[in-house]
Amino acid sequence: MTIFALSSGPGISGISVIRISGNQTQDVIKSLTDGKLPTPRVATLKKFNKINTSEVIDEGILLWFPGPESYTGEDMAELQVHGSKAVIDALHETISKIENCRLAEPGEFTKLAFQNGKINLLKAESVADLISSETEIQRQQAIKIMNGRSADKFIFLREKLLKILSNVEAKIDFPDEDLPKNISNEIKKSSDEVLKNIEKILDDQKVGERIREGFKIAILGPTNAGKSSLLNYLSNRDVAIVSEIAGTTRDIIETHLNIDGYPVIVSDTAGIRESKDEIEKKGMKLSLNRAEEADLKLVVVDAKNLDFTDFLKGLLDENAILVINKSDLLEKDIGPDIKKINHVLISIKDNLNIDNLILKIKNNLKNKFITSDDILITRERHRHHLRQCLEHLKNFNQKNEIEDFDKAAEDLRLATRHLGMIVGKVDVEEILGSIFNDFCIGK
Fold first, then answer.
1. Last residue of a domain, one of 104, 137, 160
2. Which of 105, 170, 380, 408 measures 20 to 30 Å from 283, CA to CA?
3. What is the pTM of this model?
4. Which CATH number goes with the domain that contains 190?
5. CATH assignment at residue 326
């Protein structure tokens, strides 16, 4: 089956790119053009016609990539045409009339690249991350993973486990043979080395996932403290309704921001107070859940009402900033207990001291996004398999100590399998759908 799709963004544009891949690619090219294949990997000006007629759809650039030297590993072509809806629709319609040609599914081109051995699963996922990146740090992380260092590390650790497994199986298969005395020591040394490497990768404070998904900031506090006004100020637009009426915000309102190149998701939550309103109670429950998930909490309170409830005190931990709004109404200095808390006095109405709050947020971001050349986990899928690998490795060490080699070998096989599933070195058909369905059509 040959697939085709618009690979550039939808909508009116100067140029659009239609990608084609599969056994019928040559037939598609010949049907749309003058019947001649252009020189491979050379941009060639062509007229694209409706099949079986001389009616010209558009004139544009044709690129022809014979397999296996192509992105997908199959015969492949790209049509660069004018980016009008009419041109795209006409080309799609005429290509669909060619036998065994159909519109591609989301991520199908990259899925073919993986299945044909052109890329591994980590690189496939990083392609999706690069396409969806909105900030500089997200782009840098996607490129870093595309360059293959993470995959190389996991492949290296997996190969070490395979070598250990071969030694263990040698002890099982030849129990009466005089195997080299250093084999047992080598097995222990190597397994401990892999175990420590995985523990180090897992101890990453979820930096990679924060970069990919966004740093989560929750704005919390009592009603009418100015939470929605703060969200609107940070967003530089009216995201949330602001009213003097208490309890206006009843659901979570989110906005995505780019703060100094860091991806941030800011959530305005329902005000915390005693209420008999069932809808408002549900909103407050959502607020509590969002507080637990947040990387940073902005606890906004009214300067004229600084008598905190036990609940508000519970929110003021190391991952929180106390934001005392309406500070222009303060008639006296804040108390010593409040001064001990990480706080900032602001007035959204008078645009007072908000720069200090933003600076505190930026410093918190930078501390949480500290990165190095270490391998970063960017998806829960990777973390799950690493945890499973670690658990089986620990089980292996315990069983190897008591020379229960048969069961130890099985744990080692499972540990190896989980490492392999990160890069796609085993049968991973069951996870391919969930990965590639997140892609856009045409990629």
1. 104
2. 380
3. 0.76
4. 1.20.120.430
5. 3.40.50.300
